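hi got a favour to ask and not much time before my train. below you get a single protein, a line of residues and a line of whole numbers that encode the local backbone shape. could you go over both lines and see whether the tokens make sense for that sequence. a few lines back from you is plenty, here it is:
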Amino acid sequence: MFEKYALQCAEEIFKENNIAVMVGGTGLYIKTFCEGIDEMPNIPAFVRNNIIQQYNQNGLSWLQNEVKIKDNFFWQTAEQQNPQRLMRALEIITATGKSITNFKQNKKIKRPFNIIKIGLELSKEELYNNINNRVDIMMNDGLLNEVKSLIQFKNLNALQTVGYKELFNYLDDNCNLQQAVNQIKINTRHYAKRQLTWFKKDTAIQWHNAATVNANLVASLLK
């Protein structure tokens, strides 16, 4: 769905502009926009919900062990600290009896436009400060109230993400609010590290220090 939506948006932009800029940090979404994505089987809701429930109850170590036992071939190259990737693999092998690797063809689709990838880096200290400040701003802007309004949907896959799951944990009386906020900051730092690892594998990305990037440099890169 995202691929279709993003390509439609790009097409609209190209009607009036020569350049469209996509900004983000979610590697799989960017990869899907640039290269396409393999078709995956439909998974019954009860399978997905059961895995999410067990993960919430038993934690990452349970999830890692389940994937290691049931889909060891995938496990060997998996992002072993990434619960979303692991749950996806587990639900596929549970529902189909086949490894998720069987459905990955890795066929790259050629897009009808040129793609230039620019990566911006910060020092670890600055990155972590930005993360901490961003979490504080999100809390001040009403993140807790947003999470409260979604509590009936807390088992949905889309809400098993940083910022939501920690506050659901607080609302379930498993920790106090400050502990939940601190955990959001910690998990966001872990997520940022995984993002960097993902993007560093892409040799097409031109890396630059975010502090030294200016309009002239960007213009030259886009030529």
In short: The longest strand covers residues 117-121. The chain has two domains: 2-103, 120-210.
